[in-house]
Amino acid sequence: MAIDPTGADLKAFLADRPDEPVVMLNLLRFRDGGQESYARYAEAVTTTFLPRYGGEVVYSGDGSSPLVAEDGQAWDAVLLVRYPTRRAFSEMVADPEYQQVTHLRSQALAEAVLQPTTPSG
């Protein structure tokens, strides 16, 4: 299952309008007991790395029973995180200090979706 972006993923992401704002949709499915590890990761990201790179959490919420979804499409948590540019996101995930905490996210998740979005209209 996908959890972390690869170098090729990040290269393609950055090639598409690197200096335009982006809102990252995060769909998260936790491993058993993973919420605690993710909470430690989220604390580091929201207090250190988002401010450093100009990002902000727009929305964070727990998932519940889906209204319309196929089996296996329910998510434990949903986040929307705004970054001033795609480049800012890429610089954040390449930050050596960020790399020291990203393992908390990886060990917490069974599956994840990181979907870049841009405003329409």
UniProtKB/TrEMBL annotation:
InterPro entries: Dimeric_a/b-barrel (IPR011008), DUF1330 (IPR010753). Residues 35-109 form the DUF1330 domain. Coiled coil: none annotated. Transmembrane segments: none annotated. It holds the Pfam family DUF1330. This is Uncharacterized protein (DUF1330 family). It comes from Janibacter alkaliphilus. The lineage of its organism: Bacteria, Bacillati, Actinomycetota, Actinomycetes, Micrococcales.
